[in-house]
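Last lecture ended with a question: if I hand you only a sequence, what can you say about the shape of the protein? Today we answer it with a concrete record. The protein is WD domain, G-beta repeat protein. Below, first the input exactly as provided, then the predicted structure, then a couple of comments.
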Amino acid sequence: MINCNIPDHETDVEFLCTNEYCKDFRIFCFKCLQNEKHSTHIRDVQKIKDYGREQINRNDEDLVLELEKMIDHINQIFFTLKEELKCGNQISEEELNGLNLIQLNDLICSKIKFRKEKQYLIQTIQKNADSLIETIYTGLNEFSQIQFDCPGKKVKQEMKTQKFDMINSIQDEQINSFIFNQDASILVGGYESSKIQVFQFKKGEIKLIQQLNLHKKSIYCQYFMKKTNEFLSGSCDKSISICYQNNNQKWDLKQRLEGHQGGINCIVMNNDEDLLITSSDDMLIKFWRKENEQWECQQTIGGHSSFVSCISLNETGNQLVSCSKDNQLLIHQYDQIQKMWILGQTIRIKQWGRRLCFINDIMIAFQPEKKEQMHIYHLDNVEQLFIKSQEILVGVGSERKKNRSCFWFFPQQYVQSKQIILNKNGCCVNLIKKDQNNDFVTIQSIDFQTKAIFGRMTDDGEYLITWDDRSGSIQIRQYIE
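The predicted structure:
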C-alpha cells in the first residue's frame, strides 16, 4: 500500500472519490474521512479494493457499448433515409400514361419541391456531420494528449527522443566516486583501494594525468570546487583532503580536515563556496568555514540515531536536508540572528534511504531503499513545512542476489541545465525528467544487473560516467536528444 500524502496521518490510503466536482485529493486514508474530507459527496466514496482495475475496465466497456448503440441507431436512420430518397414520389410508366395534363403538372411541381427538400435535408445533414466529425477529432486529440500525460505513455514517448548512449568503456578497478570540474575537462576518481586518480576528460575519452595517495582507506565521496581549482575527498579513514593545483600544474595536498569519528559519507558546499558541510558514519554533520585560508569546524549537529547516509543543501544555501537509517528526514535551517543551524522539521518515514537531493528551494527528491518509487516533497506555502506530494515510478533492475541491500555512494544529482534527476536505485540508474509543471517522468532506466554501481553526471548533463562490478569497467554515456 501507499502512505497518505498528509504526513501527520502516517497511514495507508484505502479510499477513493469518483465525484467529478471534487477538489480534494482523490486517494486518501480513514483519518481524512474522519476530518470530513469528501463529506458533501460521501456516496461517491469507495474503498480502493472494491473499485480496482475491473471497475475501471468495466466503466470503459460501458462507454464503448453506449457508443456502439449510438452508431447502430444512426446507421438505421441513415438506411431508412436512403431508401426514402430512392423510392420517394416514384411512379410507374403505366401510371404516368394515365395522368391528365393537370395531374402531370402537379406531379412535376411535386418532384421539383421534393428535390429541393432533399437538397436542403442533405445540406443540413452535411453541416451537422461536419460539426460531429470536428467534435470527434477534437475529442481524439484531447484523448491523445491525456494519454501522453499518463506516466506509462509519457515514458515511452520521451524514451524515443531522450537517452544516454554508451560511447566508451575502460577496464579499471573499483571506483567509489567520480567528480568533474566545472567545464568537464578534468575527471577525478576516488578508488576503493584509497588512491585518487586525476584524468583529462575530452569528448568521452579519458587520459590519466596523475595519481595521488592521500588516504589510508577507501574514498567514499568527493567534491570539485567551481570558483577555485581545488577538489575535496572524503575517506573511510575519517579524514577529508583538500587538493589544489601547484605552480607545476601538479595536484598536491593543501589541507587535511579531521574531526569526524567515522567514515565521511557526503561533502557539499554552498554556491559561494565559503561553507563546507560534511556527514559521517558517526551520526554527525559538521559545518566548516574558511578563516585565513584554512577551513575550521564552526558547528556540529546531531539528531540522527544512525549513520548519516546523505545530505543536500538547497539552492539558496539556508536549508539542509539529511537522511539516515533511523527512518527520519531532518531539515535544518540557518538562523541569521543566532548565526547557527537549527532543526526546523523532522519527517518520519516508513522506509529509510541512501539518496536525496534538493531540486530547488521548495522541492526535495528522496529515494527509499528497495522501493520502485522516488518520493517528491514540496514546501507548503501556508505551514512552511515539506510534505510528500508525489511518488515517481523508477526502475529497480534485476540481480540474482535478491535480498542484497542497495549499495553505498553514487549520490543523487539534479542537473539544472537538463532538468534531469540522476537516480541510482537497486541495480538501475534512472534518468528522471522534470517538466515546466513540476511533473516528473523516468525517461531512461539503465539496468546494470548489479547493485554495486557508482557514478556521476557532468554539470551540463552531457555525459554520464559509471563503474560497476559486473562489467568491471568505467562506462561513459553521452546524452542524445
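Comments.
1. The two ends are 36 Å apart (CA to CA).
2. The first strand starts at residue 15 and ends at 17.
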